[in-house]
Design goal:
single chain; 140 residues; alpha+beta; Nuclear Transport Factor 2, Chain: A; five-stranded mixed sheet; 37% strand
């Protein structure tokens, strides 16, 4: 069971982060999935999460994700990832900077019956914004 849960989450990152198949993740999310994203104050449903995905792909068409580490604890899969991309498109109203970023994050997915039912994600948005030149790095 836990190997299957891990496979579901791995498939999510491959589809969403590397193949840019935002619609394809529908098959991996439960209909009533709840997504807690640290930079967004209220939980998202599946469609809300897909909107975030499309916004990232508009701003970073070369978006990539690498799984650095993954472990399963009961019905939860913990994944440490590194996201990267180049800001060549508009991103949530921010014009392209042409700069690249590499940012780490941790996601905890709860999986039941082969579907992600709840997700908690924490990422380094501050580091990303500094790398893109949108806010000054410390000491600048």
């Amino acid at each position: 069971m836990s190997a299957n849960n891990q496979a579901v989450v791995t498939q999510f990152f491959e589809l969403y982060g590397n193949q840019h198949d935002v619609e394809g993740v529908d098959s991996l999310f439960a209909d009533n999935v709840v997504v807690h994203q640290d930079a967004i104050p209220t939980p998202l449903d599946r469609d809300g999460y897909k909107q975030v995905g499309y916004a990232f792909l508009q701003g970073f068409p070369d978006l990539k994700v690498e799984i650095a580490e993954q472990m399963t604890i009961g019905d939860r899969v913990v994944t440490r990832v590194a996201w990267s991309g180049t800001h060549t498109g508009n991103f949530m109203g921010i014009p392209p900077t042409g700069n690249s970023f590499r940012s780490q994050g941790i996601t905890i997915d709860q999986v039941a019956e082969g579907k992600i039912t709840e997700r908690w994600s924490v990422g380094d948005q501050l580091g990303m914004m500094m790398q893109l030149g949108l806010i000054p790095a410390p000491g600048q």
